[in-house]
Sequence to fold (416 residues):
Amino acid sequence: MIKASIFLVFLVFLVPKVNAQFINFPDPNFKQALLSVNPSIDLNEDGEIDQEEAILLTGQLDISASNISDLTGIEFFINLTWLKAGDNHLQLADFSQNTALDVLDLKNNDLTSITVSQDELLRVLICENNQLNTLDVSQNPLLEQLNCGKNNLTSLDVTQNPLLYRLLCDVNELESLNLTQNTALKFLYCAANHLTQLNVQENESLRLLSCAGNLLTAIDVSHNLALDLIGCYGNQLTELEVSENLVLKFVSCGGNSITELDFSQNPLLESLACFGNPPLEKIDISNGNNVNLFLNAVNNSNLTCVKVDQDIINQIPEEWDYDEDVQFCTDFSECGMSTETYTENPIVVFPNPTSGKVFVKNSRKVVERFQIYDLHGNLKLKSKGKEINLKNLASGIYILKIYSSDVAYFYRVIKK
Fold:
């Protein structure tokens, strides 16, 4: 009787081994990559991956740069949440059975097709530098980051991805891009496509806009108050209006047909690259921050005058790059140019820096109201009269917006 019991116990442990379903991997490099993973997937160390072992893998799998051309067998890893399979030679990838996927990295392959329609939990999809003609992410409602740049996409539908905050779709063949449903979008890279229009009015959280190398004739960024970088080089723009973008720091707008540029309302501007605009005649960068500004304004054959801050007029920064015929002034009339589209600033703000109150003096008009914004474009305070109290704000740099006779003036204010 005892011998019979021992034999039954032996069978209990033996049966799973006998009935183990080994997974067939047509690509030996894929199988070898799986066997080389640390910690090991091959729990019984038999040199094979069975279905039970695949199901037990619940975390990250990194098989990048493993010379893999076929992912057949990946469908058994149904609890996999993070897959890194970039820098291989994949042409097709179907993740219909991998419904737990959270992050999927397939960059630098030869992919012509990716199937993620069943991956409703997917948050991050990276598939840049492949051969994709189409990409369907309409069934991925939790998608937050999509990098599909450097492919052959002629269209891209992200209207079903309301949580998307980072989109990289540059270097494709896109002719249109609907972003009206992506209200969480903060970073947009759509350069080097064939876009003739780009509507970002619904993307009020947008901080970075890279749309260079398209066919845009206009771009409206008046609703993007948090924008701190805009790259619109190499389009067909005739104007660039940025007076509402208080926290703007970096602008690249060369290679267009812009005639005038006004950055007098952008007191945080650090870099302006506006080279190669043949029609450009004048630039206003008198924003109180010229000592911290880098300017590249070469190859503008009609540019004759650049308006700058008073404190640098006698010592233009050596690192600035401009054509030899350019004149610098503190008033466009000094260059014999019309001042019709530019308003001199008669306002004085003091003390600055401050530990509490800021007073505003206007020598010409009545100051009507103020608004204080942080560097992310968020309204922090508003007031009327001739003073505003910052004592309850944290120390740092803020933007003071002053309204006087329907004209808005902007100042950097430092709260100590």
DSSP finds three helices and 26 strands in the chain. The chain has a mean pLDDT of 88. The CA atoms of residues 222 and 244 lie 6 Å apart. The longest strand covers residues 396-404.
